[in-house]
Amino acid sequence: MSQPQRLTLEDVVHRxxxxxxxxxxxxxxxxxxxxxxxxxxxxxxTTLLRIIAGFIAQTSGRVVxxxxxxxxxxxxxxxxxxxxxxxxxxxxxxxxxNVAYGLAARGVARSAQRARTAEMLELVQMAALAERLPRELxxxxxxxxxxxxxxxxxxxxxxxxxxxxxxxxxxxxxMQIEIKRIQRAAGITAIIVTHDQEEALSMADRVAxxxxxxxxxxxxxxxxxxxxxxxxxxxxxxxxNAVSGTLRSIDGARASVELxxxxxxxxxxxxxxxxxxxxxxxxxxxxxxxxxETDAGFGGTVEIGMPLGAIVVHEIVGDxxxxxxxxEPRQPGVEPRAPGTxxxxxxxxxxxxxxxxxx
Length: 359
Known about the structure:
With about 350 residues, the protein is of the alpha+beta class. It has helices at about 45-55, 95-105, 110-125, 140-150, 170-185, 195-205, 220-225, 230-235; strands at about 5-15, 20-30, 35-40, 60-65, 70, 80-85, 155-160, 190-195, 205-210, 215-220, 240-250, 255-260, 265-270, 280-285, 290, 300-310, 310-320, 325-330, 340-345, 355. The protein has two domains: about 5-235, Rossmann fold (3-Layer(aba) Sandwich), CATH 3.40.50.300; about 240-355, CATH 2.40.50.140. Helices cover about 25% and strands about 35% of the residues. The chain has a six-stranded mixed sheet, with helices on both faces. It has a five-stranded antiparallel sheet with strand order 13-12-11-14-20. The protein is globular and about 75 Å long.
C-alpha cells in the first residue's frame, strides 16, 4: 500500500449558472483519516466530491493531495479511488476480473494483476467468490467488490459516494463496520458523502457539516453532537428541543436565559458573541432532559410515549403549549408513561443547553 496522503481544500468555490454550489470551503484532512461530508440534499457535498475526483473543475480555490496541487490533472492522473452509490460493477466480468480491471487498464503485468487482485479479495473477505458474476452476489458483497476494485490501483485518496444507500438497515450497519475495518487495514485517507447523521457520526474521525454550499462545522463526531457550532448543525445532527428566549446574563462559562412566562434556564455560554438582552434560541437534546420533582423546569403532560429499542421517547405538551421530546433509557418490561401524566422537565446540566442568536 502507498503511504496515506493529506488532502487539503483551500477556499474552494463552485458556481453553476446563477447559483453557488460550494462557497469557500476549506478542509485540511489528515493522512489516514476518514472524513464524512454530511448535509441535506443540495448542500454541495457531492459537488465537492466530484471536484476532488477531478470530474468537474471548481470555479476557484485549490485541491492539494499530499504536497501536489492536482487542479490541472485529469481524474485518472489524480490517483483517486471511487466507490459509487450503485457500485458500477461490470455485469459480464467475474469478481476477480472486476477487481483487476483498473490494473489492466494501467498496463500492469498479468502476474502482478493476479497477485494484487488476490490481496484485495482477501482484504474484503471475498476470495471464495472470485469467479462469481455480480448478479450472483448480494448488495453487501457487490459493495465489497467495488471497494476492492477502488483499492486495487493503490489510490492516494478513497472517495465513497453514498455507498450504503442501496442497502437495507441491518446490512447497512454491518457494512459500515466493514468499510471502517477495511479503511483502517488499508491505511488510506478516505472521504464518505452521506446525508445520514448516524452513519457520519459512527464512521468518521471528523465530520464536515455542509449547508447551502457552506461549511458550518468541521470537528469530531462528539464535538459536532455535543457542542454544535451553529443552530443549523444543532437541528440537523440529532434531535433537539429548541425554545426561544432572551439572554439575561453571561458569567464565565454560564449564561442565563429568560423564556416566555418568566421561566429561567441556565445554559452554556454561547460560542459566538451575543449581547445581553438579545433574543436567542436555547437548544437541549431529548436525552439531556430529565423529570424533576421540584417546581423548577418545564411543566407539562405526556401526550404519547414511543418505545424505540433501548430508549423510550415521550412527547410532552407544556403548560404553555410548547412541545418537548424526552428520551429515557427503556427498562425491560416497563411501559411508556401513560398519556395525561403530569411531569416537570429540566436539563440535566447547564452544559447540555446550547445558545444561538435568534434567526
